[in-house]
UniProtKB/TrEMBL annotation:
Superkingdom: Bacteria
Residue ranges of every copy of the Gfo/Idh/MocA-like oxidoreductase N-terminal domain listed in the record: 7-118
Record-linked SUPFAM superfamilies: Glyceraldehyde-3-phosphate dehydrogenase-like, C-terminal domain, NAD(P)-binding Rossmann-fold domains
Organism: Microlunatus parietis
Stated name of the protein: Putative dehydrogenase
Ranges where the GFO/IDH/MocA-like oxidoreductase domain occurs: 135-259
Pfam families registered for this protein in UniProt: GFO_IDH_MocA, GFO_IDH_MocA_C3
GO molecular function: nucleotide binding
Length: 387
């Protein structure tokens, strides 16, 4: 520590790593943290370290051995998050991994298992949307039980249109061997996390996935998945990178109400006066007639609340960094424990596997089977080594 602040090493100085450095050192958004070292395999990134007056290291291992940091954040390609996370914890250094926690569950489970042997160290994941006040409020409502049991969830999230040039800018992007997938591992991990964080982990999934549907890539750019929560409750998740207009709409239907989130900015919460089945069973004949005439007085059946909670750009990421440091310094509970990273990876893997096998798969699928199928696709690409 230095002056009561956590000394952070940034591993990987691309878009995310540079942004975190600015949040901490230029904008003062993380008062309990300092950037004290930077590592990157590209020697030209040494200029970034010079800009902040901190030492530069050509690889993450030399940074971990330097004694310059108390903690690291891994802003590197997805496959490397578990490897670097384990190495940091093994060196007695706190670790904050970027999303997703990894590409396949077997490597993420190894990371979680190792982290469990280091309870004295802080292990977090950059799920910045958990720091979004709107989604925090929605989770509070669901967790309180006031709306009863969830019966159906739906999320359409297609607001990340990507032109072909985006995929052509680097050889590793949108490949099985370099990135580990497409929209599910690049753009949608935050929503996959929030979906389960708020609504619970499903029991199984059936998916229809298109690979290279509207773009010249080998990985998925169009996904529709149906999940089964058990007891008749279901959910759907639709995402794509070829919808120029884009939609972001999240719905949760429960026994005593409904939540509809539009554009991740405004939520409408409907609260029924009592359980929907009770309302159904006790409507009078006249009320049923009024229903079909469009004359039913709905104010007697439910109330509506609009929730409009916004946060300034950068505050969500900065908030996760600040919370991570607060856990190290004062034991403040983590917003996003690193072990939670397995949930989104597991669901993304299950969606892939369901589409590859053409059938519904349990959420606790065969990890070795998934890795075998993934490696088959890596071999077909012929660009990268198998995992």
């Amino acid at each position: 520590m230095v002056d009561g602040k956590v000394r952070l090493g940034i591993i990987g100085v691309g878009t995310q790593g540079s942004m975190y450095a600015q949040f901490i050192e230029r904008r003062g958004l993380v008062p309990n943290m300092r950037v004290t070292a930077i590592a990157d395999t590209d020697p030209e990134k040494a200029s970034a370290a010079a800009e902040y007056g901190v030492p530069f290291f050509p690889d993450y291992r030399s940074l971990l051995d330097s004694g310059e940091v108390d903690a690291v954040v891994t802003t590197v390609p997805h496959y490397l998050h578990p490897e670097i996370g384990i190495a940091a914890l093994d060196a007695g250094i706190h670790a904050l991994v970027e999303k997703p926690a990894g590409v396949y569950t077997k490597q993420v489970n190894e990371l979680n298992a190792f982290a469990a042997t280091k309870p004295e160290l802080t292990f977090g994941i950059m799920f910045n949307q958990r720091n979004n006040p709107l989604y925090q409020r929605i989770k509070e409502i669901i967790d309180s039980g006031e709306l009863g049991t969830i019966r159906r969830t739906n999320w359409i999230i297609t607001t990340w249109w990507r032109p072909q040039g985006y995929y052509d800018q680097s050889e590793w992007r949108a490949t099985w061997g370099g990135e580990g997938g497409g929209v599910l591992v690049n753009q949608a991990p935050h929503q996959l996390d929030l979906w389960q964080w708020i609504c619970g982990v499903p029991k199984s999934v059936y998916a229809k996935v298109a690979y290279g549907f509207r773009r010249d890539i080998t990985v998925e750019d169009e996904v529709t998945a149906v999940v089964d929560y058990g007891d008749g409750a279901t959910g759907t998740f639709t995402t794509a990178t070829h919808d120029l207009v884009g939609t972001d709409r999240f719905e949760i239907l429960a026994d005593r109400g409904k939540i509809v989130v539009d554009r991740s900015k405004i939520a409408t919460v409907t609260r029924l006066i009592k359980d929907e089945q009770d309302i159904s069973a006790n409507l009078s004949t006249d009320e049923v007639r009024n229903l079909f005439k469009g004359q039913l007085n709905t104010k007697e059946l439910y109330t509506e609340e609009t929730i409009d909670l916004s946060s300034a750009w950068g505050s969500q990421h900065a908030g996760v960094l600040e919370n991570f440091a607060a856990n190290i310094l004062d034991g403040i509970p983590l917003l996003a424990p690193g072990s939670d990273g397995i949930n989104g990876v597991r669901l993304a893997n299950a969606i892939h596997l369901s589409s590859w096998l053409g059938r519904e798969v349990p959420i606790d699928f065969d990890e070795d089977l998934y890795l075998t199928e993934l490696n088959r696709r890596i071999r077909e690409e012929g660009k990268f080594a198998e995992r």
